[in-house]
Amino acid sequence: MPFLADRLSRIKPSATIAVTSKARALKAAGRDVIGLGAGEPDFDTPESIREAAKAGIDRGQTRYTDVDGTAELKKAIAAKFKRENGLEYDPASQISVGTGGKQVLYNGLMATLNPGDEVIIPAPYWVSYPDMVLLAEGTPVVVPCGAENGFKLQPQQLEQAITPKTKWLILNSPSNPTGAAYTAAELKALGAVLLRHPQVWVMTDDMYEHLVFDDFPFATMAQVVPELHDRTLTVNGVSKAYSMTGWRIGYAGGPKALIKAMAVIQSQSTSNPSSVSQVAALEALNGPQDFLKERAKVFQQRRDLVVSMINQAPGLHCPTPEGAFYVYPSCAATIGKTTPDGTVIKTDEDFVTYLLEAAGVAVVQGAAFGLSPFFRISYATSTDVLEEACRRIQRACAALR
Question: CA–CA separation, 206 vs 216, rounded Å?
Answer without folding.
Answer: 14
